[in-house]
Amino acid sequence: MTNKTLKTNKIRNAEYYDMVETFDELYADSKNGRSFKNLYEIIISENNIKLAYRNMRKNEGGKTPGVDGMTIKDLNKMEENEFVLVVMNKFRNYHPKRVKRVEIPKPNGKMRPLGIPTIWDRIVQQCILQVLEPICEAKFFERSNGFRPNRPVENAMAQCYKMAQMYKLHYVVDVDIKGFFDNVDHAKLLKQLWSLGIQDRRVLAIISKMLKAEVKLPNGTIQKSEKGTPQGGILSPLLANVVLNELDWWIASQWELFPAKDFVEMQRPDGKGSNRSVKYRRLERSRLKKCFIVRYADDFKIFCGNFEEAKRIELAVEDFLLKRLHLETSKEKTSITNLERNYSEFLGFKFKVYQKGNDWRIVSHMSDKAMNRTKENIKEALDRIKKTEGSANTMRAINDYNSIVYGVHQYFRIATMISEDVGNISYEIQHKCKSWKLKRRIKRDGGKTPKYIKDEYGASKQLRYINGMAIIPIGYCKHKNPMYKKKSINKYTSEGRQEIHKKLGVNSSMIQYMLRNPIMNRSIEYNDNRISLYSGQQGKCFVTKAELTMDNMHCHHKIPLHKGGTDEYANLVLVTEDVHVLIHAESEEVILKKIKLIRPDEKMRKKIDTLRRKAEISKIIWESYTF
């Protein structure tokens, strides 16, 4: 599932659970400078808790166990009311369990520490995140990216390109914060939340307890948490952005937000921008440090006009981080780069500028580390194809390979020289294929090509097949200019969600009905999946495609519960009541009656036969029935 799909799903989830209006009000009130002293009641509301479950269930992190060994699957079987009451009780007397410390390899070969709270603590954090995010979003800086809605890497790179190419700011300051996530000052963070308007002391007390939760290290020892916000926690990314939000606005105050005498900012008649350039020309006659920040999580760049300004802002930022945010910087990793001479690295890319006539142009590549990492990943994927060739695992190995290559192309296609980069990778990979004698197994023609491959690579002459399966060509990648997110896009305004509403395309009143009328004595997983199925099936019967209504809809278990079936999404399907009766009917009289009502065509019959087979019910002999 793509990041775009996940973000769309989260907005749909909020709509299903009737929280959109609440979140919109929080955002609007925060934008207007209001403080919030009664957030606790919103956080522990039944719909917010159900929404937290739904968002957690779709999150891969829900499958990772904490110190108690539990995952989201352990919560799926609980009845809905029971689940809500358990979460409410945890809030009323909140005591977080220990956080499990694990280490995963970083691209540079070092290890990244992650803190994994228990699944119940992650549910609690998700409940808080959903309510705090709209408040914080209203206060975050425009060029703060990462761990925010609609602020992906592409947005950050578009900002960098603009600074270097349009603003002609060719001196870039890189300041590295030592172990940022492990060194966040708890007291400072809580004060920053208060200054953003989050002034419900009950909520701040819970967050404080989360931050101070003990950590169980891989060797079994217990460590007290006196500072830091663990990577791996649901709430940690938002809190990290809260910490560095103060840095964003401080840097902006040094130049772009500094008031100019007798200047009034006005929007252009066409609505595209303002007259701010007039202000900047006035400020250029002062001794102010001309600087603009572009940040992605704890990684940021500051663009300046010359070396002297860059050096001054470098020292000022180091001082600000230490004195105001209590964060140390790494002298060895802090640097100033002249983009006219050298590349600057950011988020897996490297970029510089060159002059063409009177204009400056960007040239960007995959970074050297990203290139090497991609080569290793692709070689390992090809190794798996070679080892599994001829076995039942070949398809999975090819799918894994395609997933890696597709991911690389989608991420790095905004590099201006991506065609050259993937061409170099392809050249090296071809040599590896020759050394395996794998090339003779690669065919120009094959079997069925998945739609996403056909759409993206159908025009490429490099498309090949192994065992009848399409292999994505690593050397073919179409460049895409990085695009800014539209200012109108905002998940916390009705205007910003307008396009998403159009795509939703289902009866919202039916969704609200299912939400407010869950099937009693059923698990929270079952009731949540009913809503997902209704959306996934576009509100229509799986078999007949008839519109489902409140009094004519049944959520059918493909494999019955008494025969080992589950409430998982894949084991459920929505059908009309008549279809449901026909699936289970064994009496010839009942079968004939329902056949006359439904009048199934060949396609419908196949679906009914499949559902009956999975339920271990004999196949209908359709020729025996006339109607």
Structural notes for this entry:
This protein has helices at residues 3-16, 20-31, 39-43, 46-57, 73-76, 80-92, 119-137, 153-165, 186-195, 201-211, 236-254, 276-283, 307-323, 368-388, 394-412, 418-436, 451-457, 498-504, 508-516, 524-536, 577-584, 588-598, 602-614; strands spanning 99-105, 111-116, 144-145, 171-174, 215-216, 222-223, 291-296, 299-304, 335-338, 344-346, 349-356, 359-366, 464-466, 469-471, 554-557, 572-575. With 627 residues, the protein is of the alpha+beta class. The protein contains 23 helices and 16 strands. A five-stranded mixed sheet has the order 3-7-8-4-9, sandwiched between helices. The longest helix is centred in the middle third of the chain and has 21 residues, at 368-388.
Indicate the topology:
Layout: H1 3-16, H2 20-31, H3 39-43, H4 46-57, H5 73-76, H6 80-92, E1 99-105, E2 111-116, H7 119-137, E3 144-145, H8 153-165, E4 171-174, H9 186-195, H10 201-211, E5 215-216, E6 222-223, H11 236-254, H12 276-283, E7 291-296, E8 299-304, H13 307-323, E9 335-338, E10 344-346, E11 349-356, E12 359-366, H14 368-388, H15 394-412, H16 418-436, H17 451-457, E13 464-466, E14 469-471, H18 498-504, H19 508-516, H20 524-536, E15 554-557, E16 572-575, H21 577-584, H22 588-598, H23 602-614
Parallel strand pairs: 1-5, 3-7
Antiparallel strand pairs: 1-2, 4-8, 4-9, 5-6, 7-8, 10-11, 11-12, 13-14, 15-16
